[in-house]
Amino acid sequence: MKAGVVGAGLMRAEIALVFALAGHDVLLHDRSGDALDRALARLRGVLDKGVARGTYAREAAEAALVRIATVTSLDALRDCTIMTEAVYEALDAKADVLRALDRICAPSCIFASNTSTLPISTLAAFLTPERRARFIGTHYFSPVSRMQLVEVISGFATEAAIADKVTLLMRDIGKQPVRVRDVAGFAVNRMLHALLIEAVKLVEEGVATPADLDTACRLGLGHPIGPFAMMDVVTSDLCLQVQEILQDAYGERFRPPALLKQRVAAGLGGGRGRPGWIDKDPAKLDGSAG
Predict the structure, then answer these.
(1) pLDDT tens, position by position, 197-206
(2) Going along 76-166, which residue ranges are E strands?
(3) Which residues are designated catalytic?
(4) If residue 22 lies in a helix (H) or strand (E), which one and from where to where?
(5) Could you give the 3-state DSSP secondary structure of residue 177?
(6) Are residues 117 and 196 in the same domain?
(7) Is residue 153 within 8 Å of 180, Cβ to Cβ?
């Protein structure tokens, strides 16, 4: 099987990695050659850490990297068996990529989207009617190389045989698939963001600090990471974007808290090299880490 992945950010690159580790040839696409070089460098770091932990054998890690080829032209993806769209979580961006791939890829190619919030049937509308039966959602979780879960989401037109085939494929690449109905936010993000919204409200109301709430979730609920540490990893910017999508779909229960909006606007969204909720200096708004 030849797998294609469009988008070379860390999460998208790790999707390519798990296919390669399972023995599949992979084409990783981005318009920028520099972005692809950075993606491969990050994957080497991921594999080196995995070898050090004993997760991967050195030989298997090196073989996986050899199986990943990088391309800057979508035309290079025309003979892929399965294509994973994993670009920025914006309807217009995904629509442009899906339309382009629909023109290029063989009719037999399975299309999968790594969208975390946008309904699969909505995205399917950007494909030709003939392609929609072979279009499905595969929502991975970050870091993909370590998180086992994948939500598998069928759209209105997805053939049952395609859903079964993709579910088996997810198991083949070492993931635990769960089948989820096609609704905005699917299952995990709806549960997660209900928690995140309430956590931020507790801080707004002065009930507890972000650090103490993280401790409460880890020690009282058994979560491996607290909500504020999680927002610092995935960025509050992305959390705000997801909550706005969920609010549009479900109403007031997913309205983003004012404090979250204020912090994002102030540049306190977390992520690489930016202050966030935990152990950061709010005075540093120039993009440097606290």
Answers:
(1) 999 999 999 9
(2) 82-85, 110-113, 135-140, 149-154
(3) 116, 139, 151, 189
(4) none
(5) strand
(6) no
(7) yes
146 in the same domain as 212 = no
Residue 208 lies in a domain: yes
- HSE of 75 in the Cβ direction (CA atoms, 13 Å)? 1
Q: What is the pLDDT of residues 67-110, one digit of tens each?
A: 999 999 999 999 999 999 999 888 999 999 999 999 999 999 99
* Domain final residue, candidates 161, 180, 199: 180
Backbone angles phi, psi at 271, to 5 degrees: 90, -170
Do 159 and 212 belong to one domain? no
Q: Do 130 and 142 contact (CB within 8 A), yes or no?
A: no
Chain centroid to Cα 189, Å, comes to 11
- Does any domain span residue 87? yes
Domain interval for residue 94: 2-180
- Is residue 210 included in any domain, yes or no? yes
Q: Which of 35, 27, 24 is nearest to 71 (CA)?
A: 27
224 assigned to some structural domain: yes
What does the block give as tokens for 62?
Answer: 């090196």
Q: Exposed/middle/buried for 2, CB within 10 Å: 0-12, 13-18, 19+?
A: middle
